[in-house]
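Bumping my old thread because nobody answered last time. Still need a sequence for this structure:
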């Protein structure tokens, strides 16, 4: 069976554990040339294209669009037309994962074993469909599949659940692949990272005046958030022990401030990375943020755009939020949550005055950042802001 090539979920990125097929560009029975784009798969908020490393015929398609599968799971089979169907079926039945000769950026899949066939409904449904059926109290044996070759889809299960009392008056909204990725990553982060939090108030009157000067004299409009991100970049150079990733048992301390900014879209938050913020001007930070936001809205962010961050900044102040705590985005060691800048009465030189004040909360991974180090970063940020 050496002529039979398994199409398995590739490992795109060290943190990828599963992927969701969005589109098959080839149908079962189509000829496949080396380099053809066979399917598209979403993982970690990025849609990647799988290119065939061999030529032949797409003999089997075993996964439906919209279904999530772990790394190494068998999705299909490419083989010459001369290979018999019996040999194809035998190969699928005995498949247990293994290395393939994908291109270097498509890492070899991890071992995966075929599911045990316990019933017709079981074999015609994916793990995510079976999970949904359990949640909606639907007996899969009573569901007629409308997918390819009679496979049961999420929509079939929801249609079957339409008459259930459990879903009466309830709109069932399936998690998108992006939301599933967000849910998985944040759950892992909250369960495995020992968070601690440090909050401080910052007077922004000098920053606001500096922003006005920049906007009056430049072509690029700089937002308060752009200027705060720039300030964070400068503060990270003063306290680099916060500018870290935890990779395995090693701390990676960065020489440059590669700041991930949380960009809100209809499908969730995208932590897109602005590289080397400390070397940019506030206007250049604004331009980089705008470019990333536009790419996020059009779902065109690349793997490079959302990876390589050394520190995260999340700002909900524009939504009227005074302060909040954020969940760390691994492998980064910290995230800074920025609230709304608003007038407050403060004491300055022994007198009460009104100042524009923002509350910032730093979430730290206690495995790599100590409390005193986090406090020194917050003090460094104050120095940068007050110097404007």
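Sorry it took so long. Here it is:
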């Amino acid at each position: 069976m050496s002529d039979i090539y398994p199409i398995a979920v590739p490992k795109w990125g060290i943190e990828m554990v599963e992927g969701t097929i969005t589109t098959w560009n080839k149908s079962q029975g189509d000829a496949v040339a080396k380099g053809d784009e066979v399917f598209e798969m979403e993982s970690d908020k990025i849609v990647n294209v799988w290119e065939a490393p061999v030529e032949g015929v797409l003999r089997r398609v075993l996964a439906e669009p919209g279904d999530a599968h772990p790394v190494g799971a068998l999705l299909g089979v490419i083989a010459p037309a001369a290979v018999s169907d019996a040999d194809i079926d035998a190969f699928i039945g005995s498949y247990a994962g293994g290395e393939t000769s994908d291109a270097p950026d498509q890492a070899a899949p991890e071992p995966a074993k075929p599911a045990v066939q316990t019933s017709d409904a079981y074999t015609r449904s994916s793990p995510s469909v079976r999970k949904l059926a359990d949640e909606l109290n639907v007996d899969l044996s009573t569901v007629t599949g409308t997918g390819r070759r009679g496979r049961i889809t999420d929509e079939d299960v929801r249609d079957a659940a339409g008459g259930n009392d459990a879903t009466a008056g309830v709109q069932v909204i399936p998690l998108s692949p992006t939301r599933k990725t967000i849910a998985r990553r944040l759950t892992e982060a909250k369960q495995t990272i020992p968070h601690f939090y440090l909050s401080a108030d910052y007077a922004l009157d000098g920053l606001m005046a500096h922003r006005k000067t920049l906007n009056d004299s430049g072509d690029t409009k700089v937002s308060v958030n752009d200027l705060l991100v720039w300030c964070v970049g400068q503060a990270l150079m003063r306290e680099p022990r916060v500018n870290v990733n935890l990779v395995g048992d090693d701390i990676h301390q960065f020489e440059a401030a590669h700041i991930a900014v949380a960009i809100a879209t209809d499908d969730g938050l995208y932590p897109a990375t602005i590289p080397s913020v400390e070397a940019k001007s506030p206007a250049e930070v604004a331009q980089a943020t705008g470019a990333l936001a536009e790419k996020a809205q059009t779902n065109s962010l690349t793997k490079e755009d959302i990876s390589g961050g050394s520190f995260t900044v999340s700002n909900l102040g524009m939504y009227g939020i005074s302060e909040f705590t954020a969940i760390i985005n691994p492998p980064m060691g910290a995230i800074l949550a920025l609230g709304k800048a608003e007038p407050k009465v403060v004491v300055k030189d022994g007198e009460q005055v009104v100042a524009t004040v923002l509350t910032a909360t730093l979430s730290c991974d206690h495995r790599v950042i100590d409390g005193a180090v986090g406090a020194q970063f917050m003090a460094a940020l104050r120095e940068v802001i007050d110097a404007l």
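Residues 177-192 form the longest helix (16 residues). Let me know if any region looks off to you.
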